[in-house]
Structure formats: structure tokens, C-alpha cells
Specification:
The chain is built from 21 helices and two strands. By secondary structure, it is mainly α. Among the domains are: about 270 residues, no CATH class; about 120 residues, no CATH class. The longest helix has about 35 residues. The two termini are about 45 Å apart.
């Protein structure tokens, strides 16, 4: 079941092996038994230590490699996932690009995996253990990237099998059985035991189908289910019960154990009745492959969205705190990995901030620099008045026709050193005057202003007040407003009975917040402190007015966003690309995400039913604090309803 050649893999100690996680039916990513028996003597201990050192060195190499290629892995994963989402329609160019993206992705997966591993899934569990012991560094970003890559690989392979592409189904099912769910599970809720049992059953069926001639049930049991002894192939079909239970037992609920026992007896009964191909065909009919793959495909899609949410939350924490969440390497090692373990690219398409891209100074070109203040542009002197022209000629001591031809910063005599606008790097001593003196003669600002005013051809006019700004709805004709299209025909939308009434939501929110504040201010009967001494509630901070223009969300745009969240499963980049023109005011992905969070806070505070797709809208720490302050449950889900459809679990 391992998929790794035991003879080619060094013997690994228990601390280096990735054992089965809770709820997992897999026996781990490493070999469960050695290829040969080892005697307990000193030579074997020395050999084990050498093997452990070799394994540690191999994982150190993998750690260095994955930290360097982490951005490439994230980009390749996003590209292939985007190609999978856009279904192949027979276009040759699209198919060729898909094959190129798929090949690049699989080459990265192969390069980043353990050298002796035959599995196409990245064993990030062993990598995490090595990183914590040898580096002392948080590997959250690496785990998210590896987990996303494993999920995308499974999604891609399943899509190929469903489309009847030439794929080695048996190899894929064996690899999936080995990795499921501990290398694919992002939620960690141990709800995938039933799927793991179905996958293990498919491994059993496909192994029998791949055997030439009459299927050897005992050999299939020994190789797939796992007998206690490698040389014991005499197990009868009735022994399937004990073997399945001995491997699948994880200490979970009695119902799960009963499901495993029932499946094992079902397999045993089929082969007890008939051991030929009729039994095999009956198993294939009872346990079809493609419906199972569809279910696994849906499960992997949900787990991938959880990884996306975790990546977005990590990026927001980096932006809020101004630093990466990864710790620095210990013992002064790993300086070359700090760039790789810093803020990583997002798993969704985000705009590049040009403000952080800075051009390094070039010290080889010139040693002199120009100060920020410069002479006025003299090439457009024909546009100025006669008085201004005369003043400029007097101040500069030359005519405008010749001054405009000189280079900027060059003095009248052509000497750069005599001009105060330049300075040398080495001339910053104590004798250098930091202030420039006005050496112009007869410089009288009042006289200059009077001369310019007298020569102006236009009479002085009083400042006229600008007309008051009209509301956008009245100042802009309705014909000039951008057309906001409705959802295209055939797309699913929220039923009218389930559409939230935003006005009622806001009213209920304010009422619940008022009750929560009243409870906070109410005197405690067990306290002896009088009511008059109670401290008043903290007032809201008043921030200075900003010049940034804010466009409030209308109820129509908010309702449209609720529909699109249900339609596109809260994929902000898809909403921006496909439906951005439908909104009254153009916005970006961050605006959609912020508005969705604010609406989810309103729904939670108002005890309203969460619309479809809002489980995918993650709340930040500030939003959770706001919901908790209203004495409401910030972790309520869409399915938290009673038999009448009313929300439950609303309070903390």
C-alpha cells in the first residue's frame, strides 16, 4: 500500500516517519516494514544511525529546495487550477496550454517531493517535522502551498478520468488511498472516514481486476488490505473482516467502526459465493468508480477553498502587522531563506503594488545630484506677460532666448560649481552653509506683485463661489448611468423568499446592539458598587476628515453582491472579472471582500439567516470582536437552522 519501494528507501526512525493522522485509513507515507529482518546488535544500531543521518540530510535538501521554489509552486498551482475551472471545449490552443501547465506543475511536484518517494503528493507532514526540529521556523506558508498542490493534482487527475482520458486508474487510486486524507485534509474535522473506506474498496477491486487470469483473492487481500506476515497468502475471504478492522480502526465512533465491519463482511460474502469474474463485475456494479470520484472531487474543491481563505487571512495579518508571520531561523542559520519565508504571493490574483518597487540609486553615473528645487521652465516664455518676462530677464541677468537653451543647473558662465543648486558628496562639512541667500539686486516682493498686477490685461475679479454640489442621482442624467445587467438566463440565483431584506437587517442589528449595550451598562446585583460610580462607555474615536472619496454601497449593489457570492462561491477575482460591469459604481476585489464581511457582520448581529455562500466569507479579528461585542456567535454557519428555517446558535 505504501507506493514506495522498501528496498530503495533508507530505514527511517519513528520520529521521521509520517504516521496516520486521526481519522485516516492510510498507514502513512513511509514503509511499514523493512525489506529484511535486522538483528538487535551494535552493528545494526550504527547502520540505523547512518540511515537516520542520510534521511535527515535528504530532508534538509528538500527543505532548502522547497523554500527556494515556493513562489514557483504557488504560481503553477494557481495556473493549473484556473485551467481546470475553465472546462476544455475542444480548442487546440487551450488543450496545448493545459498540457504545458500540467507538465510544469508535475515537474515541480516531483522535484519538491522526497527523492525516494514514488507518490505524486508532497509529504509536507514529514517536512514540517524536520523544519520544526532542525530549523525552528514556522512552515505555515509551505504547508498551505503543498496542501493546495496536492488538492489540485487530485482534482486534475479526477477530471481526466471522468473525461475518459488515458490515465492509469489503478496507480491513481493507490496513490490517492495512500495520501487520503492526511495529505489533503485542510479542515481537520475527521469527516472523511467514509470516503477513505470507499477509496480503499476501490483499491481492492482494481487490484483484482488488474490481475491476469483468475483473480487471486488471498493475494489481493495480503497486498491491498495488508496481512500480518508478508509470506502469508493463505488468508481466506472471511479474514477480510479482521484485517480491515485492524488497519482501519482509529478509535472513532461506534458507527464508523460498524461501517467498516459491514463493508468487510460484504466483500467477504461476494467472494464466498463466487470467486470468478462474475463476483468482480458484481463488485464493480455495487461500487462504481466515477460517482466516487465525483464525490472526492467535490470534497477536494471544498478543502481547496479553505486553503484559499487561510492564505487570504495570512496576507491580511501580514498587512495589518507589517511583517511576515514566519519566524527567523535559529542559531544564525538559514539567512538565505529569509526572502523565501517572507511575505509570499497570494493564491488569488491580487494587484501588484507599485509603491513597494523602488529603484536603487546608481552611484556610478555621477557623484553630483540636483536638489529638488529647479529653475522655472523658460522654453514657454511666450505664454507669460510682458512684466513677467522683464522680471525673469532682470533676475537671471540674461535674456530668455539664450537662457532657455542652456542646460538645467548650468550657471551663466557655464560653471556648475558656482551654482547653488548643486553640491558635491564630499562638501557636507561644517563650513558649508545649509541655507542659500538671495543674491538678486533690488528684490522687493511688493514691487514685483504690483508690476505684474499692473501689466495684467485682465481686470481683477472677485472670487465667485462654486455652485453647491448636487447629489449624484440628480446631477447625472439617468441615461448616462452605466447599465447594470441582471443575471444571465440559466444561472442560479437566490430564491426571492431567501433574499435578505437589508433594511430589516440593519434595523434588527441596531436593536440587538442596543440591547447588548444596555446589558453591559446594567448594574451587577452582586456588586456593591453604586450605579453612580459606573464608568461611562468609551466614546468612539473621532478621526480627522480625509480627502479620500468613499462610494457608499447601495442596497441594489449589496443585493447583487449577495447573489454573486452564491453564484461564484465567493471568488472575488471571478466576480471582478465576469460581473464587475453590473455594479452601479466600479469597484475592485478588496471592495467586494470588505463589503461581504460587513454584510456578514450585519447578518450575525441581526440574527438573520446567512445567505448561500457566506460560509466562505471569512471574518477578520476586528469583525469577530464586533460580533462578540453584540453578544452574538461569530462562527455561525448557513446550515444552523431549525426545522422551520429559523437561525439557531445565534448567541455565544
Amino acid at each position: 500500500m505504501s507506493g514506495i519501494d522498501a528496498t530503495a528507501t533508507p530505514r527511517r526512525s519513528a520520529r521521521h516517519m509520517s504516521g496516520p493522522s486521526p481519522g485516516s485509513l492510510s498507514t502513512g507515507s513511509g514503509p511499514t516494514r523493512n525489506a529484511q529482518d535486522y538483528d538487535d546488535d551494535g552493528d545494526d544500531d550504527n547502520g540505523a544511525e547512518e540511515d537516520d543521518a542520510a534521511v535527515t540530510k535528504a530532508w534538509e535538501y528538500q527543505y532548502d529546495l522547497i523554500t527556494s521554489l515556493l513562489p514557483d509552486l504557488q504560481a503553477a498551482t494557481r495556473d493549473l487550477k484556473q485551467r481546470i475551472d475553465n472546462a476544455y471545449d475542444g480548442d487546440k490552443v487551450f488543450g496545448l496550454i493545459l498540457e504545458v501547465k500540467r507538465g510544469m506543475f508535475r515537474l515541480l511536484i516531483k522535484a519538491l517531493n522526497y527523492p525516494a518517494s514514488q507518490s505524486p503528493y508532497i509529504d509536507f507532514l514529514s517536512l514540517e517535522r524536520f523544519a520544526k526540529k532542525g530549523r525552528g521556523t514556522k512552515t505555515d506558508s509551505i504547508i498551505r502551498a503543498a496542501l493546495a498542490a496536492n488538492l489540485v493534482y487530485a482534482l486534475d487527475r479526477i477530471q481526466q478520468i471522468i473525461n475518459d482520458d488515458p490515465v492509469d486508474v489503478l496507480s491513481f487510486i493507490k496513490d490517492l488511498d495512500e495520501a487520503f486524507p492526511h495529505l489533503l485534509d485542510a479542515s481537520g474535522d475527521n469527516t472523511s472516514l467514509s470516503l477513505a473506506l470507499e477509496i480503499r474498496t476501490q483499491v481492492f477491486i482494481r487490484t483484482l481486476a488488474a490481475q491476469p487470469g483468475e483473480p487471486d483473492v488471498a493475494a489481493a487481500i495480503a497486498s491491498v488490505i495488508g496481512a500480518s506476515d508478508d509470506d502469508n497468502h493463505d488468508a481466506s475471504p472471511h479474514d477480510i473482516v479482521g484485517m480491515l478492522e485492524s488497519i482501519f480502526y482509529t478509535g472513532e465512533t461506534e458507527e464508523e467502526i460498524q461501517n467498516v465491519s459491514s463493508r468487510s463482511r460484504q466483500l467477504a460474502a461476494v467472494f464466498c459465493r463466487d470467486k470468478d469474474y462474475q463476483a468482480l463485475r458484481r463488485l464493480e456494479e455495487d461500487f462504481p468508480l466515477k460517482p466516487l470520484l465525483q464525490e472526492v472531487h467535490t470534497w477536494c474543491g471544498k478543502e481547496y477553498r479553505l486553503v484559499e481563505e487561510a492564505e487570504e487571512e495570512a496576507e491580511e495579518e501580514v498587512e495589518d502587522h507589517g511583517s511576515a508571520s514566519a519566524d527567523e531561523p535559529v542559531d544564525g542559520e538559514g539567512d538565505i531563506f529569509r526572502d523565501a519565508l517572507g511575505p509570499l504571493p497570494s493564491m488569488i490574483d491580487t494587484p501588484i503594488r507599485l509603491s513597494v518597487v523602488r529603484r536603487s540609486p546608481d552611484f556610478d553615473k555621477k557623484k553630483t545630484r540636483v536638489r529638488s528645487q529647479r529653475e522655472p521652465s523658460l522654453d514657454a516664455s511666450s505664454d507669460c506677460s510682458i512684466a513677467t518676462r522683464m522680471l525673469l530677464e532682470r533676475d537671471l541677468g540674461t535674456s530668455l532666448s539664450t537662457t532657455g537653451k542652456r542646460r538645467l543647473g548650468q550657471g551663466v558662465d557655464g560653471d556648475h560649481d558656482d551654482y547653488h543648486g548643486y553640491y558635491h558628496d564630499g562638501d557636507q562639512g561644517s563650513e558649508t552653509d545649509e541655507f542659500e541667500t538671495d543674491a538678486r539686486q533690488n528684490h522687493n516682493p511688493d514691487a514685483v506683485r504690483a508690476t505684474i498686477k499692473a501689466s495684467s490685461p485682465f481686470p481683477p475679479s472677485k472670487r465667485q463661489a462654486l455652485p453647491s454640489q448636487q447629489p449624484a442621482s440628480s446631477s447625472i442624467p439617468s441615461s448616462s448611468m452605466p447599465h447594470r445587467a441582471t443575471l444571465p438566463h440559466g444561472e442560479t440565483s437566490i430564491p426571492a423568499s431567501e433574499r435578505p431584506n437589508l433594511g430589516n437587517v440593519r434595523a434588527m442589528r441596531e436593536r440587538n446592539l442596543h440591547h447588548a449595550r444596555a446589558q453591559d451598562l446594567a448594574p451587577n446585583p452582586t456588586s456593591r458598587q453604586p450605579l453612580a460610580t459606573a464608568s461611562p462607555p468609551p466614546s468612539s474615536p473621532h478621526f480627522p476628515a480625509t480627502t479620500r472619496q468613499r462610494n457608499p454601497w447601495s442596497d441594489d449593489d449589496s443585493t447583487l453582491l449577495v447573489k454573486l457570492i452564491a453564484l461564484e462561491r465567493a471568488k472575488w477575482s471571478v466576480i471582478d472579472r465576469k460581473h464587475g460591469h453590473r455594479f452601479e459604481i466600479p469597484r475592485n476585489q478588496q471592495a467586494y471582500r470588505d463589503r461581504a464581511r460587513n454584510m456578514k457582520v450585519d447578518f450575525l448581529l441581526a440574527d438573520a439567516v446567512l445567505p448561500p455562500g457566506f460560509d466562505l466569507v471569512g471574518l477578520g479579528k476586528k469583525e469577530e470582536i464586533k460580533v462578540v461585542a453584540g453578544r452574538r456567535n461569530p462562527h455561525r454557519k448557513e446550515d444552523d437552522r431549525d426545522e422551520n428555517g429559523r437561525p439557531i446558535n445565534t448567541r455565544i
